[in-house]
Amino acid sequence: MIGLGTYAFFWQHSDRVDLPLTLTDAFEATRDLGVDLFQICDYAPLDTMGDKEIRDAAHAARDLGLSIELGTRGLEPERLQRFLRLAEAFDARLVRTMVPGPGSAPTPGLRPALTDYETAGVTLALETYEQVATADLITLVERVASPSLGICLDPANTVARLEQPRATVEATAPHVKNVHAKDFAFTREPGWVGFRYSGARMGEGLHDYRHLLDTVRPRERGINEIVEHWLPWQGDPATTVRTERDWTRATIEHLRSTT
Predict the structure, then answer these.
(1) CA distance 162 to 170
(2) Where are the domains of the chain?
(3) Helices 110-120 and 134-144 sit at what angle, rounded to 10 degrees?
(4) pTM of the model
C-alpha cells in the first residue's frame, strides 16, 4: 500500500509557515489525495501528547478510514514499550525505529520487547541510515531472528556512508518490512566547489525505483511504501509549501504508475 509519512509534510508542520498543519490536518490532506495510510514518523509532539490527545488523533484517523504506522528512534526498552502502547491506540501494525549509532549494541531489552511485539502482531522495522553500516543492521536482524523484526529500507540515507543505493536494496531485500519512497540527487554548489546531496522530485533524481520494486517486490509481499521528501527550503513559505505538495502528488502518481 502507498502511504504518506510525516516527512511528506515536513515544512507544512514547521513553525516557519504561518499556519502549521496539525496531525489531524495531515490526516485529512492524506485522505484528500486518495491515500489510505499515514506513517507518524519522528513527529515530536507525539512524545508529549497526553492520553486524550492520542485517543482523539486515533479516532480522527479511524473516522477518515486511515491505517496508521508509527516511527521513533532508539532501542531503549521504555521507548519500545511506549510505542507498542501507541501502536495499540492507533491500531498500528508497524513501528519504525533507528539503531542509536555506530558501535552501539542492542540493549538487553530488545529481545523481551520483541516478544511483546510478536504477541501484539506489531513489526519493528530498523531503518537503513548513515550512522550504522547496512551489513551490521542485517547482522542484527539475522541474529535476533524474530518474525517481528525487520528493516525499513531507505537507500537514500546510506549514501552518506558511501554505500551504493542499489547495493543497499539488494542486501536488505529479504528482511525489508517497510519502504521509504523518495528521490535524491547531487547538485553542484555555487562556484563548482563541492556538491549538495539532497532531495529531488520523484522520477527526476538518481533513485532507480524500478530496481527496488523488482528486487524487494513490496507489492507482492504486502510491504507498504511511505512517501517522504528531502525538500530544501525554497526561499519563502508559500513556495516551499507549494513545492512540497507538488512533490507529494508527483510521488504518488509515480508510485501508482509503476506496477
Answers:
(1) 15
(2) 2-257
(3) 70
(4) 0.95
Which alpha helices (H) appear in the chain, and where do they start and end? 23-32, 51-63, 77-90, 110-120, 134-144, 165-172, 209-216, 218-221, 237-257
CATH superfamily, domain 2-257, is Divalent-metal-dependent TIM barrel enzymes (3.20.20.150)
Q: Are strands 183-188 and 195-200 parallel, antiparallel or unpaired?
A: antiparallel
Q: How far apart are CA 31 and CA 28, in angstroms?
A: 5
117: cell is: 511485539
Query: Can you give the pLDDT at residue 106?
Result: 62
Find, among 214, 227, 222, the residue nearest to 255 by Cα: 227
Mean pLDDT, contiguous 10-residue spans, the chain (259 residues): 98 95 97 98 93 97 98 94 97 96 68 94 97 94 95 97 97 98 94 92 96 98 98 97 98 94
Other Cβ atoms within 10 Å of 75 Cβ, number: 21
DSSP-based three-state secondary structure for 27: helix
Identify the CA nearest to 252 among candidates 188, 202, 186.
202
Residue showing cell 532507480: 208
Q: Which residues contact 126 (CB under 8 A, 6 or more apart)?
A: 96, 97, 98, 99, 137, 140, 141, 149, 150, 151, 152
